[in-house]
Design a protein that fits this description.
This protein is mainly beta. It has helices at about 5-10, 60-70, 145, and strands at about 25-30, 35, 50, 75-80, 85, 90, 100-105, 110, 120-135, 140, 165-175, 180, 190, 195-200, 205, 215-220, 220-230, 240, 245-255, 260-265, 275-280, 285, 290-295, 300-315, 320-325, 335-350, 355-360, 365-380, 385-390, 395-400. The protein has a 28-stranded parallel β-sheet that branches. Strands 1-2 form a two-stranded antiparallel sheet. Helix 2 (about 60-70) links the parallel strand 3 (about 50) and strand 4. This is Polygalacturonase-like protein. It is found in: Secreted, Cell wall.
């Protein structure tokens, strides 16, 4: 259990930038917890661990997290208004406190703009935490404008991605809401090996030409919901990687960016299947792709199935509906990712490409049970009508079809 001496150490072990936490906290005798002074409007029923830092402050954040995590009671880590510089920061569990532990970001967290400061997949990581609320209305600034110059993925197919702003590994029962993420080094959020994750009311922003700045990347995770968020990036607004199951994306506005993507799949050996994806009530604005499924050729066998894309608006999108099983390399070997049971319903809007629907599937494992219902995509160009192209795909149609169905 944390005590006042533990918290004093955070301000005494060489961290001159810390205003001693003991000045901001008073004991609550019945449970031995800590609460903010009443003048700061804190609850008297939960401990708040408050950080006020002026310089690079990674270790102070980690120590404050450890105090909250090891406190045997419900706890909140509160980061008030201000700008706080952090290098690689890992918030590790499991925690002793009853779930959930709350991280309330009111200020701005700013990444150290030195790529050598990051050795792992994330800048701010949550690892092995059961029960987490990340909220507060603050900003997480990855300082990508300084660091994108170190991204060589356009010329190196085996490049190592820069750190994700928020990296969640083995996190369960989590709610992330009301956070602003800007200019990530790599992905803005990467969720992997996690379960029961709810994400809503986020603002994610990076320039349209920023490299590999996916808004949210999900892999090897089950039951993830992303809703009511606005994502503007230089890559996929949301990307669904291997091993993702039961993912729902609802009421997300995307653009600029590369759209909402399943994949890319099949790059690594023995990838896990993707199953159970719902994308609904979303709007894509000026993106290079709309809703896309992309797999590498010459892949190991895997599956991507049970996907529904419903009630989606495309506004000046380059490639509104696309399956691309020749993504990423010039290999002539077919992809072995088996795509089946995919439904597109009530997709409407405008396309900047005359090819509004492109279903280019694998010759080895053709797409099965793909169905398009009520598609209305008008071409913005002059003198041409939108068209569809298909290869190695068994497709069914119902309702309005603009562009017309493929002639197979």
């Amino acid at each position: 259990m944390a005590n006042q001496e533990d918290l004093k150490k955070i301000g005494q072990e060489g961290f001159s930038m810390v205003e001693e936490l003991s000045d901001w906290l008073v004991p609550s005798p019945p449970v031995g917890s800590f609460n903010r002074l009443s003048s700061f409007g804190a609850s008297t029923t939960q401990p708040d661990l408050i950080i006020r830092l002026k310089q690079e402050s990674t270790q102070a954040f980690i120590k404050a997290w450890n105090a909250a995590c090891n406190f045997n009671g419900q706890s909140t880590l509160l980061i008030p208004l201000g700008i706080y510089k952090l290098g690689e920061t890992i918030f590790r569990g499991p925690c002793k406190s009853p779930i959930p532990i709350t991280v309330q970001v009111q200020g701005t967290l700013q990444a150290v703009s030195d790529p050598s400061a990051y050795s792992g997949d994330g800048w701010i990581s949550f690892d092995s935490v059961n029960g987490l609320i990340l909220t507060g209305g603050g900003t997480i600034d990855g300082q990508g404008r300084v660091l994108w110059q170190y991204n060589n993925c356009k010329t190196n197919g085996n490049c190592v991605l820069l750190a994700a702003s928020i990296y969640m590994n083995n996190v369960n029962n989590s709610n992330v809401n009301g956070i602003n993420l800007i200019n990530s080094m790599g992905f803005h959020m990467h969720i992997t090996g996690s379960n029961l994750i709810m994400i809503h009311s986020l603002s994610i922003t990076a320039p349209g030409n920023s490299p590999n700045t996916d808004g949210i990347h999900i892999s090897k995770s089950n039951t993830v919901e992303v809703s009511t968020s606005v994502i503007r990036t230089g890559d996929d607004c949301i990307s669904i990687g291997q091993g993702s199951t039961n993912v729902t994306i609802n009421a997300v506005t995307c653009g600029p960016g590369h759209g909402i993507s399943v994949g890319s799949l099949g790059k690594e050996p023995k990838e896990l299947d993707v199953k159970g994806l719902i994308v609904k009530n979303c709007t894509l604005l000026g993106t290079t792709n709309g809703i896309r499924i992309k797999t590498y050729p010459a892949s190991n066998p895997s599956r991507a199935s049970g996907m529904l894309f419903q009630d989606i608006v495309m506004d000046n999108v380059m490639n509104p509906i696309i399956i691309d099983q020749h993504y990423g390399t010039k290999s002539t070997k077919p992809s072995l990712v088996n795509i089946h049971d995919v439904d597109y319903q009530n997709i409407r809007g405008t396309t900047l490409s005359p090819i509004a629907v492109s279903l280019m599937c694998s010759s080895q494992v053709p797409c099965q049970n793909v169905h398009l219902q009520n598609i209305n995509l008008q071409f913005k160009g002059i003198g041409r009508r939108p068209t569809s192209v298909c290869a190695n795909a068994k497709v069914g149609y119902s309702g309005l079809q603009i562009p017309p169905p493929c002639k197979i």
